[in-house]
TrEMBL record:
Catalyzed chemical reaction(s): ATP + protein L-histidine = ADP + protein N-phospho-L-histidine
Source superkingdom: Bacteria
Protein name: histidine kinase
Source organism (scientific name): Salmonirosea aquatica
Gene3D superfamilies: 1.10.287.130, Histidine kinase-like ATPase, C-terminal domain (3.30.565.10)
Keyword Transmembrane recorded: yes
Amino acid sequence: MEEIIEFFSRLGDSSDWPPRWQCGTWSDFHGWLYIISDLMIWLAYMCIPVILLRFIFVKQGVPLKRVFWLFGAFILLCGLTHLVDAFIFWVPVYRISALVRFLAGIVSIATVVALVKYFDDAVGLKTSQEFEHELKYRQKALQTLEMANEELNQFAYVASHDLQSPLKTIEGYLGLLESRYASQLDEAGLKLVRTTASSANRMRTLINDLLDFSQTGLNQEFAQVDMDILMAETLEELQNEISASGAQMRVSPLPVLWVARNDIKRVMQNLIGNAIKYSKKGSVPEIEIWAREKPDDWLFCVSDNGIGIDETYFNKIFLVFQRLHGRQEYPGTGVGLATCKKIIETHGGKIWVQSSPGKGSDFFFTIPKNPKTIHDFQRTE
């Protein structure tokens, strides 16, 4: 222990040895060749860590970054041993030389351990050729998926559009039948005509909702949108429902986002409309809307004190044409939340619900600060 204390207390003391020039017989050529070689190696070793550090900072998301840091420290210390060796020709700081070599040894062992530890991970890293091949495969798959999606949307649009014509005929004849022959029909006949007309009207609503759903996310026009202004417009458009229900609205300040304006307005209309529709009988709807900033996105919440939803149906309610209640109790087609989910996901966000029966519902959704849609990825091909 005393030797260690003495070693560090005399770390910079060079009085115990003569300079290297005076050890043995050095010719000028031999000595300077040794010194210049050490300095060249030191200079090269100094450049390697600088390049590695620049690579780490410039190239974000570098895998196995810890190995890079260890390797840089190892190279730096190895270079430092050569610098000290050259310096010893004039000042014999052998204690400093021994300490630097010891540190280089420790770091070199740590580097070897890290290389062994991360060997399997390093082998699993893809080469640039493998990345290029995978990128081409993904782009092809994306194109195929987009084409299939476009064909499906087109089919839904055409099918829904073509259904409108015979439906108009049915509704027209039913109206004509009721207006001209109502006096000749008994109560059962009139009920049959009116039930059929009501079903035709419900089918028209379903077709229109299907048309809207099939076109959701297409031809989106993104722009900077002040959500406070958009919310004010949404509440004004829903004023009849709000007034009729006596709903109490609380809206916190909202951010400015890069979104498809009309689509996000539809999300807000659906969520607020549902909060009013599914309020508890004899209770005044209380609806709160707020947003919180997260590192990469904005979190929105539409909260109510309504009838609530059982956890079993948290996923089902976001599927198209899925309803939890009969049409007589709560009107609707079951497309609204499916449309919200499609819109939010085309923005790169997520939507979910937290709720308990009888205790209201909290609908959450996120909007990325820099949303990337499928069209953005297509433009980078």
